[in-house]
Amino acid sequence: MADPNLADFHGRLRRIDKIRRKGGGFEAEGTLGRSHFAQSSRRRFPILGPILVVALAVTGLKAVIHARIGSDLYAARVTELQAGAGIDKAGAFIMHPDPITLYLSRKLRRALR
Fold first, then answer.
1. Which of 13, 20, 60, 105 is most deeply buried (CB count within 10 A of its CB)?
2. Is the pLDDT score of 15 beyond 60?
3. 3-class SS at 86?
């Protein structure tokens, strides 16, 4: 026959091991111990960062093209895209020069001279 106190003792040891595996333990109040770093940091909108990177890349690409070929030829090519159908119109919408693109294009033209 097993001792009931021994079973209770082993149960407490299992609970302590489970807590430690999850990152808990005996830490001083107010310190950054293992449990702080073991927690996963989830952001609210994890897609926001990649969307921002893509938007910056597209704006930078538009600025480089605008600075390289000039605003007259750039406007003509965007107009050609607007005359197209389907995906061409979407490309025209994306490639339309916005104020940020024009500003960056001016800065690049000065840097290239």
1. 105
2. yes
3. coil
